[in-house]
Write a structure and sequence with these properties.
This protein is mainly α and 91 residues long. It has one domain. The protein contains three helices and no strands. It is rod-shaped, with a radius of gyration of 33 Å.
Amino acid sequence: KEGYSIIGQGKVEQIMNAKPEDRRLIFEEATGLMVYKSRKEEIERKIDSSKNNLYIYAQRIEEAERRLGPLSKQADAAKEYKEYSDSLKFN
């Protein structure tokens, strides 16, 4: 299926005299690629944000796991003390 476009007078010359980067933008916009490029950029930003959040949560988990060892020992000691204390009350 062929598509036709009407280009204003002087536009062709303007396009031909444009820098390659500008020319590329003009053609990308004309073909509808800009919509997909902006969507891609938005998705990439979201992915970067998600990676950053994942890193932060991994750091929090690592810190919690580091504190878990000593806290577990304290909990065991408290449980042992309570059992010993309860056994003294009944004797």
